[in-house]
Amino acid sequence: MPTNQDRPSWTKYFMDITKLVAKRSTCLRRAVGAIIVKDKRILSTGYNGAPSGIRHCSEVGCLRERLKVPSGQRHELCRGIHAEQNAIIQAAYHGVSIKDSTLFCTNLPCSICAKMIINAGIRKVYYLSGYSDEMSGEMFTGAGVEVIQIKTGNQEEIV
Question: Which residues have a catalytic role annotated?
Fold first, then answer.
């Protein structure tokens, strides 16, 4: 029987689930997962990849790789949709309000996702790894969205 010491904090629990969601990614460059949480309940999940019904990059190749587009630039040159966008869209599709929620993401959201996160009413973002898009951080700060990078040993905060 597990002890309380074996039981993960809420932050670790949700980030571990986010990492599992990322494994569904069909992107050839980076597997990203996102979940939206409110009141310690998962409202929506998303991973990066081609839209429903569209062939995946794993089947047709990566245009960004062929054109040597650096990470964080020219987002429009991609078949895929970002994990954060998919999580927000899934919530809307199913009529779930995400106002005042928390987003867990394996990577710091880009500026396009930051705009969506801000306008969706998400108030806090936890992430593991950085991303080459300084504008997103500026936008989050300006909008008052709390952004927290989770590092090893920094997963004990209660959501």
Answer: 84
